[in-house]
Write a structure and sequence with these properties.
Layout: H1 3-17, H2 21-35, E1 51-55, H3 61-73, E2 83-87, H4 90-96, E3 103-106, H5 112-120, E4 124-129, H6 134-140, E5 147-151, E6 159-160, H7 167-177, E7 182-186, E8 193-195, E9 206-208, H8 211-230, E10 234-237, E11 248-249
Helix pairs in contact: 7-8
Length: about 260
């Protein structure tokens, strides 16, 4: 998706959610200033292979993780042959299974202690600036290493815009931009439920999502469908959630049929 295409979609997002483009752009400018104080990190510094596993924070996340680990134990797949990308709060679930993501796509809404841990252990953090998180950017970005910036509005300096709205679909756009040819979506149900990985203060494992979260999930689904239709990439979904046009819903055991 080129920038002009994205900006057309972005205008609809602003209208549907009541967001402020001015606030988004002020936050992006702040993030750019913060990143100027760090060693420059370009998109091509990210550890990206031709295959990627992208983990969302949906209800299927832990089940998918265990299934993938079981396949690896039986030598049916090798997880280190994939770039492992976590969408924000999914990082917590990966760390619980002793799995360090290569890349974390985040607007700093997840459990910060887990984002810091992943970063210390080698993960690149692709930090997103939007109108609601300038305080988090100021508080956390100066204390993180290997950080790249993104925005959903006009890119500026070290803050990029490759398309995408939620952490999950933004991870998909990022993977395409970096040349991934086959990606497997895990924990991406795109339904009506939220989890403690998506909402750390939830108080339980899974709950009904509020209306804003449901609308965000609807947008995320449509954006992944756009990628499947318009980009040269094979997208597999092992989550067992919402069916998406152009995305192949498969049981986890069939991953190897598409690459190995």
């Amino acid at each position: 998706m080129n920038l002009s295409q994205w900006m057309s979609c972005y205008q609809k997002i602003l209208k549907d959610f009541g967001f402020s483009q001015d606030d988004d752009e002020k936050s992006a400018q702040l993030l750019n200033q913060l990143l100027k104080l760090q060693d420059r990190l370009s998109p091509w510094d990210l550890p990206v292979k031709e295959k990627a596993l992208i983990f969302g924070a949906g209800p299927s996340l832990k089940r998918n993780l265990h299934q993938l680990q079981e396949l690896e134990q039986h030598q049916e797949i090798k997880l280190d042959e994939f770039t492992i990308i976590a969408a924000d709060g999914a990082t917590t679930a990966l760390l619980e299974e002793d799995l360090i993501p290569d890349v974390v796509v985040t607007d700093l809404d997840g459990k910060m202690e887990n984002l810091y841990q992943a970063n210390r252990e080698g993960a690149v953090l692709v930090v997103h600036a939007h109108g609601d998180n300038p305080e988090k950017l100021e508080k956390h970005v100066p204390h993180l290493d290997r950080v790249m910036g993104t925005t959903q509005s006009q890119p500026v300096g070290r803050v990029h815009n490759w398309g995408g709205f939620t952490d999950g679909d933004r991870a998909v756009f990022l993977a395409v931009e970096l040349g991934v040819k086959m990606m497997v979506l895990a924990g991406m149900d795109f339904g009506t439920k939220t989890t403690r990985y998506s909402r750390p203060d939830l108080g339980g494992e899974v709950a009904e999502a509020d209306q804003i979260k449901k609308l965000k999930l609807q947008y995320a689904k449509k954006l992944v469908e756009w990628v499947a239709k318009h980009e040269d990439v094979c997208i597999l979904n092992i989550s067992g959630g919402e069916t998406m046009k152009g995305v192949k819903d498969i049981p986890v055991s069939r991953i190897k049929e598409y690459w190995y």
